[in-house]
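Input record (Table S2, row 367):
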Amino acid sequence: MAEIQTQNVPVTTFDLFAGLETTQHEQIVFCQDHATGLKAIIAVHNTVLGPGLGGTRMWYYAHEKDAVRDALRLSRGMTYKASVAGLNLGGAKAVIIGDPKTQKSEALMRKFGRFVENLNGKYITAEDVGTTTRDMEYVNMETDHVVGLPESMGGGGDPSPVTAYGVYMGIKSSAKQAYGNDSLSGKSVAVMGIGKVGMHLCEYLHKEGVKLYVADINEGALKYAADHFGATVVSNDDMLNLEVDIFAPCALGAILNDNTLPKLKCQIIAGAANNQLEDENIHGNILREKGIIYAPDFVINAGGLINVYSEYNGYVREQAMAQTENIYNTILDIYKMADVHNLNNQQAAIKHAEKRIHDMMLVHSTY
Ligand code: NAD
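Output record (nicotinamide-adenine-dinucleotide complex):
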């Protein structure tokens, strides 16, 4: 990055367009409003399949370039997630730079909503880390291009139970791949992170006779899982060393890294957390070499996206659940593709996503 002076205004530049060419982004919008203190970036990655949908993250980024990077990285991930899930949606994401605890206001969120409105539906927003349903209600006062609203406002409400159902389906298809049948009865599953998704997942697994291990930093959640699902509580470190059939990361990103991979003794990794692989290629390949079946995160956790997408056609939860169930087959297709092309599962999932985008581009090539 180089510092340049433009009429006494320091402007920090970096090879933005070169970066955009590499990541193939379509459009980046920088939003600034002095009165409300809004500083936001909307990154639209790809709209071949439909409008770019992705949540708005509010985060206190130490450097502006970190915010740009996050917006680029996350929006690309949304393109792949929507494509593999078979949705007519593109990928986009917004980040608001600021501390969500102290710098958020109705005016700031509504101003942001006006920037979203200016994109005329090319970008559809939703809540994400650092933003809430209440914030989205403010955004919705300025634009209709918002999903993930409460059920009372015609939205789909909390998507976590649907996400959990998709993860459960992905665990079952991974079991089919590993053991030849998808029954989880008698299997052991370690769930790291029993928040909104992890707890619903525990419920599904418990009903199928799974021996559960849970780790979290929330004592109340641990007690609930122990009391209701007979789960054994362990520390994060102990969980990584457990001899279990399945490890389900449902808390942190980058949990699959140089430090954790040598410890794992499971046969399957399938959980809800986003960006589980610290490095898609390096760590994806290590898992493949170790013979551990990894369910690509953006495929298995697409239930939440499917849920908000359903709002567009008049929300019916049963329909969202039925479409989410298809994650079972998609995951098996990806495992097949990985074998045929000698790729790790994450790479195969990306190839699967890119293929659909490419095919649809051909469909749209004539009037
Ligand atoms: P959540 O915040 O409700 O739950 C996360 C849980 O992880 C919490 O119980 C928290 O206490 C625990 N946790 C935090 N730090 C931890 C640590 N160091 N060690 C152990 N546990 C820790 O979030 P969620 O909605 O359940 O989402 C879980 C993951 O799934 C996230 O990565 C999220 O991005 C991803 N995801 C969620 C959805 C959804 O519909 N909610 C959809 C797609 C992906």
